[in-house]
TrEMBL record:
<dbReference type="InterPro" id="IPR036390">
    <property type="entry name" value="WH_DNA-bd_sf"/>
</dbReference>
<protein>
    <recommendedName>
        <fullName>ROK family protein</fullName>
    </recommendedName>
</protein>
<dbReference type="InterPro" id="IPR043129">
    <property type="entry name" value="ATPase_NBD"/>
</dbReference>
<dbReference type="InterPro" id="IPR036388">
    <property type="entry name" value="WH-like_DNA-bd_sf"/>
</dbReference>
<dbReference type="InterPro" id="IPR000600">
    <property type="entry name" value="ROK"/>
</dbReference>
<dbReference type="Pfam" id="PF00480">
    <property type="entry name" value="ROK"/>
</dbReference>
Length: 399
């Protein structure tokens, strides 16, 4: 009896593995034949046909009529992935706002909603996340019952069991029961992850790091945090804190984990104080007198010397941080990501010139093309990974 159970478990695992392999190919392709699936997966014909028949019965794919080409004998069977057989939700929960997106099973975003947190109380923050999710579903014209999984990114370490570290008060503030709320209120499987780790997944999937296995993605807006990939796998650490950079307070020439936006604001305030040298930043400051990162980059592009000096300081500071990452992880590529990434392109040349001073293994440096959506794109990828792994267990609403 023990041998029979063990064999049965092995068969189920093999069937699940084969299903994931076929689905992955079909999701990235258009119309495919059995022969093409054999070539792409390395599986034998009988296995591919059995998997396709299973997926047809469950509603994941559809079979098209007619041969793919003029052939002698029996026409080739052709299949197409049903990218709207279900949907996934990705949520980015930050300190000041939250963004929810709805995507189809190819990862194409169909709806998006952003909401600001007006009240720090946990119940109100949860209600705001709910509102953002409802808005994204409405924007995509997707019924909640068609959602197969959701993933949520937060600015705190999350271990492999989905537990949030309470090592810092800032992290503990994100322990709101977000995944439980989605599971109980919506009935969706929900996954929780660190935002920088999701950014790394997003960049490798659809960003500047496509195809790169040894990678660091640095969220560098208000605070610097990193997602680290080694040989294509995320590094988590015991409590999920691998890549956290609070210890930058100890690094010479850095002194804090403050990111580009925070530093531009602080140094911009110094630049416009009474008695400081004349600068275009005075005219570009906001109504409250605050100088935002966009104003600093704009003034520097216009030739303002004070703004250019701020960018020089930023470049050196980031070069020191990236030099540390190069020494610790030896990545092929470091991607600067987040809301300020587009502007950060102006820093690349200076950073690359400085890097050899700070590490013997300088990586390539790039800026993200995903902008503010980088975390929500990573959340979509995480939700899709869950859907593919559990395709045999999920019931499709549109079946």
């Amino acid at each position: 009896m023990w041998i029979t159970v063990r064999e049965s478990q092995g068969v189920r695992l093999l069937r699940r593995t084969n299903t994931v392999a076929v689905l992955e190919v079909m999701r990235g392709a258009g119309v495919v034949t059995v022969t093409e699936l054999i070539a792409a997966t390395g599986l034998v014909r009988t296995t591919v046909i059995a998997v396709c028949d299973d997926l047809l019965r469950m509603g994941w794919i559809e079979e098209l009529e007619g041969a793919s080409d003029a052939q002698v004998g029996r026409p080739a069977r052709r299949f197409r992935f049903r990218d709207r057989a279900g949907f996934v939700v990705g949520v980015d929960v930050g300190e000041a706002k939250t963004t929810a997106v709805v995507a189809d099973l190819r990862g194409r975003v169909l709806g998006r909603t952003t909401r600001a947190f007006a009240d720090p109380a946990p119940a109100r923050r949860l209600a705001t996340v709910d509102d953002a999710v409802d808005g994204a579903l409405a924007d995509a014209s997707v019924a909640p019952g068609s959602v197969l999984a959701a993933a949520v990114g937060i600015a705190a370490p999350v271990d492999r069991a989905g537990r949030i570290s309470h090592g810092q008060p800032f992290w503990a503030a994100f322990d709101l029961g977000l995944e439980t709320r989605l599971e109980e209120r919506r009935g969706w499987p929900a996954l929780l992850a660190n935002d920088a780790n999701l950014a790394a997944m997003a960049e490798r999937w659809r960003g500047a790091a496509a195809g790169v296995d040894d990678l660091v993605v640095m969220l560098a807006g208000e605070r610097i945090g990193t997602g680290v990939m080694e040989a294509g796998r995320l590094l988590h650490g015991r409590s999920g804190a691998a890549g956290e950079l609070g210890s930058l307070t100890l690094v010479e020439g850095v002194g804090s984990p403050d990111g580009i936006a925070a530093l531009c604001r602080a140094w911009g305030a110094e630049a416009v104080r009474p008695g400081a040298p004349e600068t275009a930043l005075r005219e570009l400051a906001g109504p409250s007198g605050a100088v935002e990162a966009e104003a600093v980059f704009r003034a520097a592009a216009g030739g303002d010397e004070v703004a250019q000096q701020i960018l020089d300081r930023l470049a050196e500071r980031l070069a020191r941080v990236i030099g540390l990452l190069g020494t610790l992880f030896d990545p092929e590529l470091v991607v600067i990501a987040g809301a300020v990434a587009e502007s950060a392109g102006a820093l690349l040349g200076r950073i690359e010139d400085l890097l050899p001073r700070f590490t013997a293994t300088p990586p390539r440096v790039a800026v993200s093309v995903l902008g503010e959506s980088v975390v929500s794109v990573g959340a979509v990828r995480l939700a899709l990974d869950h859907v593919e792994r559990h395709a045999l267990d999920l019931e499709l609403a549109g079946r």
